[in-house]
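Translate sequence into structure tokens.
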Amino acid sequence: MPHPFVIVFMLLIAVSIMTYLIPANEYDREKTAAGNTTVIVESYHPTEGEAVPWKSFLFSLLPSGG
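Result follows.
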């Protein structure tokens, strides 16, 4: 059985790779009279999104001094 840190590290790598494969999309939202936010039906559209830069991902894993 792998160490829990190894499992978490592998999950982080898998999720960061998925940011390159899955495009960024969103639904438009509106506030109701009651103050709740609801999704507008059939308003799904692509948005500007960036994948996780692999260099910053790797450097974020290193502990910072201080």
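Note: The mean pLDDT is 84.
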